[in-house]
């Protein structure tokens, strides 16, 4: 009906290409326009100015010979000021963009190892965008945004990467466990050393107390009982210690059977052995000093 009354409507975000006798005449903006068909004018077609998106999947390989599928998302639109170029110069805009994307990706990714390709996605996207912007601006299109949305290695490669990652984490866990065990052993050894040191101090203090007690006993007995010598007092102390030891052995519930010679002469023999040992020690000390 519009053509009958020589009127045509152009929708919003769209421009119409008007020709006269087969030659480009002008670009019609959104709205209602007069189109005198009897003067040879007609609408050759419409061109959308909306933002469009094209997803391109490109298979290539990395520098370390791993085949990957790179998925690029290209957002583009036609420029209203160059609508005639966008309409006439390209017969298939999407195929043209796809060819440029393939060219740039297959030139960029083979220079990178697989790990670097994941890390440098933005650099790859920038290279694709720069190449597309330079090429498509001559055809009346603007590249708004270029994104590398995914890099998909082969399934076997992904499984191997996961196994490597798992092995690395297990190695770290084993190292941490070994380090923890090492710390525990060091702390246990330090505790044992400290316990032995304190036990040694206790034994030394105990022996010192015994010696001090014996000395005080000998001195006190010699003072309070006239006519006694230190030898007499030591014999009595040894006899007392001997009977105390016998008492402890008999009272201990965990003691096994112990057979020892016992009698009045046994005490004298023990005292004689201890005294002889002390005298021999003193003689050896004096001989060493003389030489």
From TrEMBL:
InterPro entries: Band7/mec-2_domain, Band_7, Band_7/SPFH_dom_sf. The keyword Nucleotidyltransferase does not apply. It comes from the Eukaryota. Positive regulator of hypersensitive response (HR)-like cell death. May be involved in potassium ion channel regulation. The keyword Manganese does not apply. SMART domains: PHB (SM00244). This is Band 7 domain-containing protein. It comes from Oryza punctata (Red rice). Pfam families: Band_7. Keywords: Lipoprotein, Myristate. Residues 5-165 form the Band domain.
